[in-house]
Amino acid sequence: MATDNDTPLLDARPSDRILALVMIVIASGALTFSRDMSIMASVFPRTIAVLLLVFSVALLAKSFVAHPRRVRPEPGSVGRRLGLIAVMLVWSFALKWLGFLFASVASAALLAGLAHYHAWTRRRLIGYSLALALIIGGFYILFAIVLNVPLPAGLLWRHF
Amino acid sequence: MDTLSFMAAALSPVNLMLAVVGVAAGILIGALPGLSATMAVAVLVPVTFGMSPESALIMLGAIYTGAIYGGSYAAILVNTPGTPSAIATTFDGYPMAKRGDGDLAVTLSTLSSMVGGLMGALALLTLAPLLAQIALKFGPVEYFWLAIFGLTLISALSEGSTLKGFIGAGLGLLLSTVGVSVIGADIRYAFGSQFLLGGVETISALIGLYCVPVLIDLVATPSAHLKPPEKGRGIRLGEGLSLMWRGKFNALRSAVIGTAVAILPGAGGSIASLVSYSEARRTSTRSDNFGKGEPDGVIATETANNATVGGGFIPTFVLGIPGTPPDAVILGALLVQGFRTGPEMFTTNVSVTYTFIGGLFIATLLMLPIGLLIGRYAFKSIVTIPKALLVPSIAFMTIIGTYAIRNNPFDVVVMVVLGIVGWVLSRYGVKPSPIVLGLILGPIAEQGFVQGYLIGNASGSVFGAFFGQPLSLAIIAMVLLSVLFPLWRGWRQRSSKETAHGH
């Protein structure tokens, strides 16, 4: 079992400083944008923003006076991670335009490629394609037909 | 005697069949990230309109029980709570699955859910009118402090620094203020976008913050995400039963906490499971193992969240105030059937009420065989599925689950963006649980805070409104304890290490 004790620790001061500064910006932004709100609407977000500011300043101060350590993040391929983020973002934006089914089939195929580390054989390709088609088709039927969820058909296909 | 005969009516073949179908449907829906217990009950309510009131209630209770339990599958196997009440199950359930004990974690979750469910149903049967009166003593300020208690607990319990836990909770609370304000209906932080008017949807955020980081790390390495179980181990029922026996006081305490928290309308299973997890960790002799795959952690959270099912029905039936969100849907179904909740449920409509309670007992007992059967195959299949199928399948379920909540493609964008933000934040030491709980408890905290502020202004002392009531002071004491206890324990561990080094 992996525990914190056998994981090498990193110096957390630089990352804590970045985190604290980002949170200070967010809290300050929340305070600034609450100026135009009524008292009833602004009292809670202002209180929370002030608390967030206090905690962030405390984290910043701690990074100068103490030597905090953090667990080393999970290693792995940066390219594949960025690829997954890109596919997920495009998928989420494409739902409205390409339609649920088309966007999902294309994105799922790309993700399968990203997550696969071995050589592609014809058998594997057919097997995985069939399995993905079954999963997507099954859930599409469950949501669109059984649960009557109006899944987007795609604005792009309206012209055809 | 009448009570027993009304309860025995739940044993009719039709009611038994409805309980089986309800539990299985609830487990399957609850196990899918994005489909909460509330949604499971809401989606299947129309199916019950043509049934007799007893059968309808039995089926809805069975769906609710199954869905709350089903939420633990995704929490254990993919580190994504299927329902918000399974958030704390990820703390130890997922580490257990990672080291190859996912089958044991699922078995423990099944046994604990059954124990919790039975205790909750027993409380509903015996203590309903008395307990409901206590819930009425909670005003807006008490609810505010209760929400703060939940947040301080999760911040202190989250892996890593407590300060970062508070930062995460603050961020979650701020996110909960996006959109139309709870009191006053002002538009806040929408920046002119009509999509942000509706605010950040909690379940979408939950899916994004828990699921997307798992996917990002899954594609990064070729190794399997969970250690496969040893061959021929089966469902490990014997091991699970012996662990349950060892943790019997933990289970009993968690069931009592779950029932008590559920009686407070709106508090729900997420607070119940966190409070019981915290208590289990505080009192355990193996407290250092919590968060690293300690079976007692799974027992505490799963017992508590299923105890909220019976507990939540207490204010629903006695006062007509739903204890948890799914109770609100069931309350609506009761109204459609022509029932008025309140004391009448225990006088005029006593046959329906006790048949339903009998049905709840049966559904909870049925959860054991059905849950063990589904759980066994769920773990085996999730371990053997190659990553090239697992990653797109989970991604697809997150997308369709998020979209289905409000039929809004923008929620899917928010889910993905929050997931990416959550992954970055977790590399900086801010874990998703405090952010998600901040989002869930934000509206409860804000409503209590603003109402308390207005009451304080009207009575001439805002300080008195927040710090003047005995009930508030008791919760504040628990808040302080939840913050100071981990700090004190950390200080004691450091000083004992230093002493050991000195020698």
UniProtKB/TrEMBL annotation, chain A:
InterPro entries: DUF1468 (IPR009936). The keyword Iron-sulfur does not apply. Keywords: Membrane, Transmembrane, Transmembrane helix. The chain crosses the membrane at residues 18-35, 47-65, 85-113, 125-147. Residues 18-152 form the DUF1468 domain. Pfam families: TctB. This is Tripartite tricarboxylate transporter TctB family protein. It comes from Chromohalobacter marismortui.
Automatic annotation (TrEMBL), chain B:
The keyword Calcium does not apply. The chain crosses the membrane at residues 16-45, 57-76, 104-131, 143-160, 166-183, 195-216, 251-277, 354-379, 385-405, 412-430, 466-488. InterPro entries: DUF112_TM. Keywords: Membrane, Transmembrane, Transmembrane helix. It holds the Pfam family TctA. The keyword Transmembrane helix applies. It comes from the Bacteria. Residues 16-437 form the DUF112 domain. This is Putative tricarboxylic transport membrane protein.
